[in-house]
Amino acid sequence: MKAGQSPQSGDSKGRICIVTGEIAGPDFNGGIGTANRGLALALRAAGFTVDVLYTRVEHGQPFSFRGSFEEQVAAFRALGISLMCISHAGQWHDWLGKSLRVLEALQSTSYDLVFFDDTHGTAYYTALARKTGNPSLANTRLVVVTHSATQWICDLNQSPINTLADARLLEIERRSIELADYVVSPSAYILRKYQSYGWSLPPNTLVRPNILPFTGEKAVPPSRQAAIDEIVFFGRMERRKGLWLFCEALDRLKYELGDRKVTFLGKFTHEDGESTGYTLLRRSAEWPFSPTLLYNYDRDQALAYLKAGNRLAVMPSREDNSPCVILECLVEGIPFIASAGSGGQELIRDKDHRHCLFEPTADALTARLRAVLKDGIVTGQPSFDPKVNARETMEWVAQLVGEVRRDAAAAAKPAGRKAAPRRLQRNLLLLAPRELSPEQVIDSASEAAARHPEASLLVFAEDSAAAAPAGGSSSTPLPANLRICPLTAYGEEAAKLQADGGMIALCRLDQPVPEAVLDRAEESLQRTRIDALTVMRGQAIEVLRPEQAYVCVGSLLWQPEDYRTGNSSALMSLAQDSNSGLVVLRSERAGVLARLSPRDPQLCRLKDVGLYVHELLLELAADGHGFELLPDCFLPEAAMPASCETYEFPRIAMNHLHRHRGMAVGSEVALLSRLALEKLATDAARQNALGLLDRLTSRVGEDSLQQQNFWPVSRAFTTYAKIAHASGRPDLALALVASSLTAEDPFLRSGPAKPSDIAQRSAQTLNLATLVADGRHASMNLDHPWSLRTERERQEIELHPNGSHEGDATLIFAGLSFEGPTTFASEIELAASAKGPVKFAFELQAPSEEPRSEEWVLQPGERKSVDVALPAAFLAGCDAFLTTRMMRRRDSTEGAHAKWHRPAFRPR
């Protein structure tokens, strides 16, 4: 169906889409997948047309646990449901990329309702497009179902938020809920948890238990007394689901079980860098019985196993939303016990709480299991009738569809004498970078004026010749809608626009702005109360007809240069993630432009425009005005020269923290925020400095510099420091002097190096100690406080070996890729205090390749340099492992301080 097309006449009940990365069928058993399958079947049985848009796609391939995805499509078709997947060429965890592909697909088909999971924020760009007035979504309502947001999972698992990507995922999940038309939660518990994080819930929020796939097929069996001869852990095998709490209870009961069996039924996951299956096997090694591990059963097989024999399902999750495993046990009459106090308790009839629930502690679970094994258990009953719940949910959906269609019909009626909205006066404020000559400024400004004949253009230039009143020679007069002004007049000119009732678009002069972007922004400003809008930069992708009919593509695909999250309060202070260098705002908000100059008073030059726009947005937010990102239109990528400014973002963000977040200067919170900002800014500042250094050296004569011998490296950095200082950049000069004191990179020892060589090679070097310090690694068998120590400044990793019974101490660096020939280099050292020799190992693993490894044995007090050239087959993508272990089983690990000095991948 085309975008904006009405549903077919035969589609009388309504057309509904379920967007999800988990649905039982292609996905393995799991609560979200079970709930989505139940919802899809119930909607179809109620007469709705149902499409499922599957998002668990990586590198163009949809995931299917059993059989091919084509077979799953056929199986759903037999049920009357259309199973499709998005066209996604990126990685599985590219959440924003998948969210954009979902938006593009939904714009091409008209749906009355679209259901989303809150998990992974897939709804984000679609919700933003609807909030900002996307006409293709005007007759569609978005429903977000609360299953398990990442912030809640991290809260329960006590997992730290280590990276900016983690923070971004938390934000898009939160905002997806806040922007939704309706939020449906299977428990009141999870809504309280989300609100405790400071989230706002939309007015249309309701609690509706999940619908199981077989709800309409059978009645709930009555309660019965059941004897128990097998205990079954039922659920995903992870900490959050109470796996280790269950093991603690078994530790206490292991000599009381007699001939009773213990089974673990559920999927393994990864925790602390390894499979929970491995951890469970080690944990169970000392039990006087052998547990059974059933880790590859699907939902139907798992339920069949629990119903066969006198088996007790145990669900010891400390907190859970609305576990389908509990609901399944209730509906099937399976004996079970579960933790009290969270969403699972809401599913159980009050009078059965004493039979089925226990406090989520090892003592309480042990006591409850002991009592059940002795006296048996009474099976529980649900707190609601599942059939009635399914019927009422379908009635609610039908009511929503009716409202959507009535609203669409009312909007389609002729407006009569009602006048069309008045076009807004368009004002373009274009900032000319200093790299452009006066002639280039005039030419670029004239071209922009021709592209926007109905707009009034103000171009601000630093060069007095470009900004002369005449605008150039008399033979080439400026277009009537264009003025070129000196940058010093920016505030005065901006203030004049405050009362014209129009809109203002601000960006760099050399960034083309399509009329379609301004049209979409104008439409949004007229339809909504949003004060300012930003966009992403990207390029259009040719839409190819997919080979498989089940791949859903939109009529227009875009590949962003960099994904933005827009108005994200948590990221506003941590990253410039709000814009790509363009802002469109209402003219009445022009006062913020007059207050904040685009000229840096310290460097006496134009600020980076993206950072300047971000500063404007921070100021708008402080004034109580909102802005949003337009996710459905893009700026074309432009070949703009790098600004190479001082990286201003930490200063801007700290001002925001002090002025707008109320963080007192010098307070612990402010100091921690400053540390975080400086850490995030380090890489960007370094790249900017290297780029500027290359430009400065070219100005003073790079040819002469290239004839010099730049070894040792300190000599090169000292020379560049002098150039930077003479060019008015003392900050860069000091940084280079500091670098000269620690520069020992062996890749330059082969001979002279150009400034561009140092810039390029430094940028391509991957320091592993930095990755460890930033938490960008995984680990195995690092269970002691002394297992791992890192010194960022000295670029040093101490990977203390384990005893022979604990396994190798290993660091894992996953998903590495390199642009060209690369070497792994390090110095390894074993402290003299070690009781025996230690083996150091470096290993590479890549798909379809045999692992490659190098090993070195050091005696106490020994130190040596190691250098390994990476095979070409591993450059495109590999995992790297650093390992230490004692060479002799009998040796104590005491004093065995094994260190990797400056471990890094460097270009050859």
UniProtKB/TrEMBL annotation:
It holds the Pfam family Glycos_transf_1. Coiled coil: none annotated. One of its GO terms (molecular function) is glycosyltransferase activity. Residues 231-376 form the Glycosyl transferase family domain. Residues 30-204 form the Glycosyltransferase subfamily 4-like N-terminal domain. This is Glycosyl transferase family 1 domain-containing protein. It comes from Aestuariivirga litoralis.
